[in-house]
Structure of Ferredoxin--NADP reductase:
Amino acid sequence: MTHADVLIVGAGPVGLYAAFYVALRGLSVRLVESRPEVGGQLSALYPEKFIYDAPGFPRVRAHELVESLRRQLHPFSPALELGALAMSLELVTRGWQVTTWERTGERAYTAGAVILAAGIGALRPRVPDVAGVDLLGRVALEWPGAVVSPGDRVLVSGGVPQATRAALDLHDQGARVTLAHKRALFRGTPEQLTRLQQLREAGRLQVLAPSELLAFTPEGAELLFADARHALTLDGALYLNGYLPDLQSLQGWPLEWQGDYISSGAGQSTNLPGVFVAGDLSSSGGDLKLLAAGFAEAAVAANHAVHFVRPDLKVRPGHSSDKKLPTT
Ligand SMILES: Cc1cc2nc3c(=O)[nH]c(=O)nc-3n(C[C@H](O)[C@H](O)[C@H](O)COP(=O)(O)OP(=O)(O)OC[C@H]3O[C@@H](n4cnc5c(N)ncnc54)[C@H](O)[C@@H]3O)c2cc1C
């Protein structure tokens, strides 16, 4: 089934919350996300950091807030397309068609209404600028998602939170992991960093830092560590060095832009009927790129999208406290 009442581009915090609100109103919803996991900037850029201004949380780590949003949405079982980059938007008989680029090729999804919650753009992983990157043929740029077998020798290159997480997860899957980074500093939650240190001290996970990744070779990789060249024989490698936001995939769409923002009017509407915008991408927040503003816009966009698809349903949702809902 490739049709949903409402399709949401972007499964960051705002997309997740908008999806929850659409589902709460009883409509079907599909989320399309270019990354292999939900959470947008919170998961990709600062999962281990505390947020102090999320409504109702005196302080919460970004990855925990994502987990709460995911749990709030989970009982409604939305369609979730991960690793799907939305490339085009066209008017069709059933509403709007969004075409995506996925690992298996192009796919098309239709919906009565679309909510754009694409934030600062698709978060695309940085590509290594070292010799022989195509030689190994198995350099993954994202975590989660890389397939590794127990016993495989794997290099994880990078100091971002995904690198620490990947090194620990791969170790747990039975891989023989080398973690390397240009600085002797890794990011992660205190629990992850403690565990990394323990595994390193026990000689169960090799850490080469500070080190320089010189090249990928047909056998593996070459690194400069402690003033000596090291040749690693590898079965796979992950290069995890952060993300660059990319709005290009949306810029050909027939939308009205104000710089990096899509112009939004009443009800978070755009210049296209049945297409709404919320969160960092919306002009309504001005330069106020904050979760609190994005969540409010998500609720407004979702309820207007619901009314657009089902004019018999009012925009006003009533109070959720009057409902009885399944909990996770
Ligand atoms: C380091 C840092 C710290 C921050 N701290 C705070 C804080 O303390 N408090 C606060 O309120 N805010 C904070 N923010 C800002 C907050 O993270 C953003 O306001 C919030 O993430 C916006 O949510 P969003 O869902 O609109 O966009 P995003 O989080 O950017 O999510 C958008 C999602 O859409 C996906 N996407 C984009 N284009 C496409 C496409 N074409 N196809 C498919 N998927 C697509 C992206 O991959 C991404 O996952 C911080 C931001 C950063 C970078």
About this structure: The helical segments are 13-24, 40-44, 62-73, 133-136, 161-172, 190-201, 248-251, 291-309. DSSP finds eight helices and 21 strands in the chain. Residues 9-15, 32-35, 40-42, 45-46, 51, 53, 85-86, 117-123, 249-250, 279-280, 289-292, 294 surround flavin-adenine dinucleotide (CB under 6 Å).
